[in-house]
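Below sits our specimen:

——
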Amino acid sequence: MSIIDLLKPRPGLRVFVSAGAAGIGLAIAEAFIEAQAEVYICDVNQAAIDEATSRFPKLHAGIADVSKQAQVDQIIDDARRKLGGLDVLVNNAGIAGPTGAVEELDPAQWESTVSTNLNSQFYFLRKAVPVLKETSDCASIIAMSSVAGRLGYPFRTPYASTKWAIVGLVKSLAAELGPSNVRVNAILPGVVEGERMDRVISARADALGIPFNAMREEYLKKISLRRMVTVDDIAAMALFLASPAGSNVTGQAISVDGNVEYL
């Protein structure tokens, strides 16, 4: 097998992507579909699911609130039935959480952020790991963390805390699951172009009392390459991690961020 062939995911991979109907999740799902994988996505937004499945008729999909264990259990059971097993789990679901000084944060918003960003990853792992062990000979788990999982993030402590926790989860599970030939890695996106990042910038600009454009420039100044990354950059890394070229990559927290220097 040539080096070029190693970089291509094996055709027929069975892939599950949480929060896969928009943004990074949809870009990852689309990339795997182009690589001839069988893909199942879940999302909490039925309209987004309908739009995604209309674009990609072969895409399997179901609705689920990933913060609810019972719904995660049901969606993985359905994915196993539809796909016949599982080779790749992409734990992608997450929310931005609140922006503000720690003493002003609403505890309910903290709990919501932890539930969606961190607890959901555990729920999927708990249910999907036995399926990966049983049905795959090339099992790969890809957890979506963030550049905020390697740097401090003032005024975004709920979000940053969950993203740091995901890195710890990945490194621990890589050691735990390695003997079962299950690889576990985290992708740490940086500042990703799109509406979601615009909302984050707007919220932080409001918290600091400065204009949106000035806040956006502040974000770019923190990036060595002085540019944002795209959802396709993240999807490309996911493909690599699931390809034969990534077969000995596990326990890693890989930044795709243009080198964000500080937050």
Q: What stands out?
A: Residues 3-192+230-256 form a domain with the Rossmann fold fold (CATH 3.40.50.720). Residues 107-135 form the longest helix (29 residues). The CA atoms of residues 79 and 256 lie 28 Å apart.
